[in-house]
Write a structure and sequence with these properties.
It is built from ten helices and 26 strands. It has about 375 residues and is α/β, with parallel strands linked by helices. It folds into two domains: about 180 residues, FAD/NAD(P)-binding domain (3-Layer(bba) Sandwich), CATH 3.50.50.60; about 130 residues, FAD/NAD(P)-binding domain, CATH 3.50.50.60. It has a five-stranded parallel beta sheet. Strands 12-19-13-14-15 form a five-stranded parallel beta sheet, with helices on one face. Strands 11-16-17-18 form a four-stranded mixed beta sheet, with no helix packed on it. Bound molecules: flavin-adenine dinucleotide.
Length: about 375
């Protein structure tokens, strides 16, 4: 009987495995992919979609079509729970599915529920929300200057702020007045010379950075900080970091301090060798990793090799996270900030490099 490989989540770390479904099936492995949507959005280009540089088709993979064209099965549904002892998954629809080997790439969410009391916000995950936020800005900017608030002080907040500003100026829009509620410190984790350029570009766009206090409440457009200050905005984005998908804690599997599925150097659950995972949803026990797409991308070939090896009883390959990764921030309007191994610069060339790399990634996996 054919072995059953189930890929849960059609995310960045499963791209190579999904591109090889035809080969896997020809080796007698039945492949099923489970995802909530027929398309997966490439996060690196999400802020560029908000700022009007890309349209949704430029930055999304038609994952259902990619799977089905190779003879795999795509189930439009979401994972709810894993019964690892029975090798069984329960989906949001209530349906169940069994596996011989399963790999999880179900990403992360923005934990903004604690501060959101009422009203609408666009959290930066899933990336599709940025398209909805863009539409709202475009609609409002036809009439008036739009007050946009971005809650969060890291790279996603910087990119969303810069691209909201760019969006408000499109199509004769009246523009956006953007504010970043950055918590204690804006861009606290980047080197000083990167920080300096982030502040410069934001200042050039008239983007205000509010520091020194965290947001404690968002209530129908009113943002309140712990120190008592409050502001109102027409459109609000939340970019307060990410937490791994809660499906693993819900299922009683071993998780790291952030709730990510614990995996060993083979990207494999130590307790359940038929379970693997990649991307934001894992906790890589050897060396906790930043929640950046770079690692999900680097995990691709290892996941494919190890899923196949596990099904065939062959030795597994270790994952090497690699050294420093390239940082390029898209600040909107074709400008970026580049940083790698002590080299830092800002401007059009920085964005051009990011655009080139991101488009190459899309071309590689888009059918
Ligand atoms: C605005 C923004 C910009 C960013 N820019 C960059 C960048 O330039 N470079 C970089 O390296 N990183 C960037 N990141 C970080 C990057 O988004 C993440 O590290 C990356 O998305 C992780 O990929 P992933 O495949 O693990 O998760 P995701 O991209 O979140 O993909 C997870 C997939 O799983 C699916 N899924 C979710 N829940 C379920 C479920 N219950 N059942 C089944 N499927 C499910 C989702 O639909 C999705 O397709 C950015 C993040 C944000 C928010």
């Amino acid at each position: 009987m054919n072995k059953h490989l189930v890929l849960v989540g059609a995310g960045h770390a499963h791209m190579t495995a999904m591109a090889h479904i035809k080969d896997l099936q020809s080796q007698g492995i039945k492949v099923t992919v489970i995802g909530p949507s027929s398309h997966h959005y490439y996060s690196g280009m999400g802020p560029g979609m908000l700022g009007g540089t890309y349209n949704p088709t430029d930055i999304s993979f038609p994952v259902q079509q990619m799977v089905e064209a190779q003879g795999g099965t795509f189930i439009t549904d979401s994972l709810e729970r894993i019964a690892a002892d029975r090798r069984e998954l329960t989906l949001a629809s209530g349906n169940t599915i069994t596996y011989d080997v399963a790999s999880f790439n179900i990403g992360s969410h923005v934990p903004d529920a604690e501060v959101l009391k009422a009203g609408e916000v666009f959290s930066v995950k899933p990336i599709e929300n940025l398209q909805a936020g863009r539409q709202r800005i475009l609609d409002l900017a036809r009439q008036n200057v739009v007050k946009v608030g971005v809650v969060g002080g890291g790279p996603a907040a910087l990119e969303v702020a810069g691209n909201s500003w760019a969006c408000g100026r499109e199509k004769d829009g009246k523009g956006c007045q953007v504010r970043i509620y950055a918590g204690k410190h804006f861009m606290a984790k980047v080197p000083a010379k990167v920080h300096k350029r982030c502040v410069q570009i934001m200042a050039k766009r008239g983007i205000e950075i509010i520091e020194g206090s965290y947001v404690t409440e968002i209530n129908n457009g009113k943002v309140t900080l712990a120190d008592g200050r409050s502001f109102t905005d027409d459109v609000l984005f939340t970019a307060v970091g990410v937490r791994p998908n809660p499906a693993f804690t819900r299922s009683g599997l071993e998780t790291g301090p952030d709730g990510g599925l614990v995996v060993n150097k083979f990207l494999q659950s130590p307790k359940y060798p038929e379970i693997f995972g990649g991307g934001d949803c894992i906790y890589f026990a050897d060396q906790p990793l930043d929640k950046v797409g770079v690692y999900a991308v680097r995990q691709n070939p290892v996941l494919l090799a190890n899923l196949q090896a596990q099904l065939e009883g062959k030795p597994l390959m270790p994952f090497d996270p690699g050294g420093d990764y390239l940082l390029i921030f898209n600040c909107g309007d074709g400008e970026g900030i580049f940083h790698k191994r002590g080299v830092t610069f800002k401007g059009r060339l920085a964005f051009w490099i990011k655009d080139y790399i991101d488009r190459a990634f899309m071309r590689h996996f888009q059918p």
